Amino acid sequence: MRTSRRAQLGRHAITIHDVAADSNVSIATVSRVLNEPWRVLPETKDRITASISKLGYVPNIRARLLARGQSGIICFLLSNRPFAHSVHAQVLQGAAARADIIGLQVIYAACNYRPDTPPDEIALPSVLATNGLIDGVVVAGTNYPNILTALDELDLPYVMYGTNMVVPSDDFLPKAVYIDGEHGGYLAATYLLSLGHTQIRYVGDTTMPWYSRRYTGFCRAMEEAGLPCPPAVGSAAEGEMAMGFNTTNQLLDSGEEFTALFVGGDAGALGALRALRRRGIAVPRDVSLVGFNDEDLANIAEPPLTTIRAANEEAGMQCIEMLNGLVRHTIETAETVVVPVRLIERESAAAPRMPS
Q: What residues make up the domain containing 225?
């Protein structure tokens, strides 16, 4: 009885040599299919791919990376933020998922520094300075230009989750992935306007670029509706939830008239909800409320929060794609990537009450 090729090979691990022999090509050709498939004729590539499937060959990804002078390890560096922050946890989750698909590992590291810390005094994790241990860095968290200078001095490829990058202007940076905050602000205001609201206030600390971009979109929608754009209110110095709570109380104490609030973050919106409830103001019967990010608590709030969903996991995936291109030199420069957002309608917004 004839023994199958797979049975003949069953006594040892399938190697690239076995694939080459089975598909009647050189080892170099099999290697090109694994690493640079665009360099191989389609019919040859199909024959080799069929052999890989038939024999059950599993490429040694780590060996291939080491042969290219790479470790296959990416560092996810979270600066000036707690790990439990849901937005950055979602970005990390997306980064890790995409890295797993393309055979890379992600390790987590934290860094805390001040905006005025000299770059050479930023206490970067030692893993970044160990030559050859990691291939590149995804920079996430709240960051300032001084950390980019510090990373440049390490001569290590890096990309940024740019949404929380604090720079002098709202301009997008290269080598960065952003959530489309401006369009999100526009969607939130347009939605509230469509419900019939005209007295809408924006709560967000516009000294921070991400709140500023959301306010820009909010104002554009208001102006398109022929309405003045009221000034943004709020300081995030004590945290986002405290900003929503304190600012809402301040608006109410000043006698400000409004029928809707757009808060530039879900935690802030939950703080606003708490302040309104303590004053006996019902949401959405008396005041409608819209947040931003679609964080975990948004859907279980009472009432569930209408919000702008930011595709944070997609942003993490895009960071890995961009960094992998820089590490492998398949791209020379990395252009800015802006990830779209969408409105999630729940129960915290409704048409304004008619005067009795």
A: 181-310
